[in-house]
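task queued by scheduler; priority normal; single chain, no ligands, no partner chains; default sampling; output format set to structure tokens
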Amino acid sequence: MKILRRLSADELLHLYNIGLLAGILSTAAMTMTEIPTWRRWGIRGVFEWHENYIITKRLRSYLHLSNTKGMTVEDHFKGILFFHFLNGSIAAVAFPYLILLLIPFFYLTILSCSLFGIFYGILLWIFTLVPIHKPITGFKPWNHPLGHLPAVASLTGHLVYGLVLGILVFLLSTIM
């Protein structure tokens, strides 16, 4: 934590901006891996999108923004993708700070940042997606009506997210 205390406000903001930009781009890469899953199994096949669909639907209903009864999943896509990119961006903001804390222990290269990114993606999947999926959607990730492939697809998306995040944070840190 001493490292973070030695940084100026401008340097801390710089790390924030790197994380935010890397998060948006990493979430976009993750989204590209989720589109085939959505086309094959629909909204229930993409864990993150299914959760965001339920949240968007409940939020619209609770705020009386619209009558959700006759709405299709596609009618909620703006909300689904809004929450998807919001979550991905917020999670990514922390990553450059974590990398900074690792500097005393590891020589940081594009490979090490990529591996840390993959590990971060796995941790996000384990600690943020798996515990909340059933309470939000009603489906257990490991006992899903569509089998185990949606869980594998979701984990794969998080691996891609983490890999792209690690690469981008490394590259943006060296060029910005």
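post-processing summary
- Residues 1 and 101 are 7 Å apart (CA to CA).
- The chain has a mean pLDDT of 88.
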